[in-house]
Amino acid sequence: MKTIAKIIPLKRMPRSLGVFDYAIPPEMEGTLFVGQLVKIPLRKSFIVGLIAEFTQGDDQSLKHIDAIITDQSIMHDWQIKQILLFATLFGVSAGVMANMYLPPIQKRKLKKIEPLPTFVDHSTDTISKPIFYKYQTPQKRQQYIKQTLKPNTAWFFASIFDLQNAYDALDDADKQKVIIYNAKLSTKQKFEAWFAIAQNSDLTIFCTRSGVFLPFTQLDHLYLDFEHNNGHKHWDQAPRFHVKLLVPYIQKQFGTKVTYCSFAPSIKTYFDVHKNNIDLDPSIQKDTMLQPFSPIPSIIDMKNEKKSSELPIISFPCEQAIIDTTGSVFIHINKKGYSHGMICSDCNFVFKCPGCRLSMVYHKNKQSLECHYCKKVISSHQKCPKCNSKNKFPFGYGIERLAEAVKDITDTPIIVIDAENPPQHEINNTSIIIGTDAAFAHLPWKDISLVIFANIDQTVQIPEYTAVEQAFLQLQYIQFNKNKDTSVYIQTLNPEHTLLKRLHQPDYFYRMDLNLRMALLYPPYGQIFRFFYGHHDYRVAKTSAYATHKRLTEALTKDGITARILDPIEMHPRWYRRKFWFTIIVKSDPLQFQKNLSWFSQKLSDDWKVDPNPSSLLHP
Hints:
Helix content is 28%, strand content 23%. It is an alpha/beta fold.
């Protein structure tokens, strides 16, 4: 019997190909350790691998380790165990998961690194309840961050913008206490930051969600900034983790105290506070956790503004407010382009994307119709494919049409901001800013005297169970940042919506939304995870989805798994990144979440994607 090294190849592989066995050459015996990086043959090439463990067995048919890359371990046993566990939970190979834990592989520099300090085990089976801390103002948020700059502390920010703003507001002495880690750092910066954290526990770390896999040797306190924000979810590629989902594992490993911070709690945090799963910071009480809007925004019923066959884009009260305002104005519209699309005047044909079947957005300045998902572009002068007519008209409105309507009201300079068009220069204090959600990061709040939501119905009508919560928190974000005398106007066709009727009673709104979730077993009353599959052939995608659903349903009963599996759903958009997509949603008892997620992930074939706690149920 020979000693065999079980090695994780650091390469994106199918999830079933996680750990490989390799023989140890005689000259390497006694020089290899768990957590060491080595060079291994894989198929016709050589790649980097991570030693996960050693076993005994017959090595005659095995390939040999080719070379040693690091002379010592750069990863501890507990990290290896987490890699293998999380690979199963998130439905990825161990190699994909290991790369999240490791620094950028720079072989020359790895040869020169100093040995990592001896790991002191702080693990515990008893973890303390998280605490919720409420930010009263942006200034007090910054003061609170400054007060917590202590050794062995990590601040997790929802975006690089939030992280950088918090860091820039520190004085030079405080900046010396902080080390930054995020996806925008260069390879060199990431490498240096990773080893600085691995070799020195007396730091305050400012990081985004990827920092949850950093090589902490001790972590006394973890703070989650703007805990309600979806930026803490790694949603667009595997592994699709949420920082909150991994926080309990950090707590168990280090006995870490956790504080969730925001200007308003997420509905899940609100629920947990009232169920005593989360404690409140002593500075706040339950009855002050949510603050009513002050002053209450002016709700404009757009049905009363209708003067012709078409609704106006800007209501008369908003027109007057724009004209009368002396400071800057921010008008929110979360829709790109000039209009939602184009309709043939003769036969009512709607120009749709042939792939995802969504209306193609009209861009007047480009004279084009575009699908923002498939990136398909056609000329807006194209004839109707149904009746060959040239006559067509735009329907709905987006950011370009809104800007055009504002120009008819005032001569004040207009700045248009969306994800593709950030501001190119500093915004002066007499501008009108028209923007999508991407504009919030660039607003000069101290100069803004008027905020208008041009069409809040677009947000609350999104077919996602979190849509109304996100709209409410967006309004709370404005309440948090705006000046006391800033006016807020909300244009809507549904002024009786619970969100708008309860702006003065936020507790009532939260409880109403929780009642709906309880009836549907949505979080926090149940845990949700989804699996989704894509194929370039629609029939193959649909057939595979239904066959997988049938197989899982039968296995569910046979294995006695208590979870509710819903029928396959065509995703929205159905055609995305050159594939047709279907999803299967599972509702689980929160107490059985890890067990059920692991069971389902192991039952799926490698071409299915796994998404625990999804931020969207329908988007691929």
